[in-house]
Design a protein that fits this description.
Elements (H helix, E strand, L loop, with lengths): L16 H15 L5 H26 L8 H38 L5 H24 L4 H26 L4
Length: 171
């Protein structure tokens, strides 16, 4: 029997398990994307800390960075032990403080522009994250407490930005 070159074979109609799981996951995230908004900034910090650590590790192997320096150790400690507390405080403050702040600020300051209102809501949310981080971590130095407050404010601004983009809300 001779097979023609232009003859096409019939395609399989079955769906692979990986494709089905990926499709189901994407549909779930699209449907419930607002639930994941408080986790986005901590996840970005988590990956950023690990990328910085990998860079520090490469620089140590090249001889540019010395083993005695504590910067890379602090970054790894923050990436491993700081991530769960940042994630916990982000979710708690999102559902406890942020919803309250949106209502109060929108009611008290109706003449503010959308940008000012969004920045102030993100700052209140981030400040609450920072205070909760300070209470959880109990830093010994004032610089560490200030750093935790700044991390909280940046995480709050990032989460509020992601929430508005995912939910399609402007305030």
């Amino acid at each position: 029997m001779r097979i023609k070159r232009n003859q096409r074979t019939a395609k399989k109609t079955g769906i692979s398990i990986v494709h089905g799981m990926r499709k189901g996951f994407v549909q779930h995230v699209k449907k419930n994307g607002v639930l994941y908004a408080p986790a986005l900034a901590p996840i970005v910090f988590f990956f950023l800390a690990h990328v910085i650590y990998l860079l520090a590790f490469v620089l140590m192997k090249m001889g540019v960075l010395q083993n005695e320096q504590l910067v890379h150790k602090a970054i790894v400690t923050w990436a491993v032990f700081g991530f769960p507390s940042l994630l916990l405080s982000s979710y708690l403050c999102f559902y406890v403080v942020n919803r309250f702040a949106v209502g109060v600020l929108a009611r008290k300051f109706p003449l503010w522009s959308a940008t000012t209102l969004n920045l102030s809501i993100g700052s209140v949310y981030g400040g609450a994250i920072g205070v909760l981080l300070v209470l959880l971590r109990k830093p010994e130095a004032w610089f560490s407490a200030l750093l935790l407050l700044c991390i909280g404010i940046v995480a709050g601004q990032g989460n509020w930005f992601f929430y508005r983009k995912i939910a399609g809300v402007d305030a």
